[in-house]
Give the backbone structure.
Amino acid sequence: MTLAIPEQLYSVMKRHPEIKWTEIMRIALRQKTAQIEKQRDPLREYALKHAAEDWTAADELFEF
């Protein structure tokens, strides 16, 4: 994967060679994809849809 990084940001990154920037990107990508997947969770979507209609019913969904 190739990323386009603004020159100003790149110059700051170059001043910190002790940081493993590829690892930072892996972590950020993992977190973002987990967030996206969580948003697509069918149970969560169902709960959010019904929460708008009836908060009491939505509360019952989360009593596992």
The chain has a mean pLDDT of 81. The two ends are 41 Å apart (CA to CA). The longest helix spans residues 21-39.
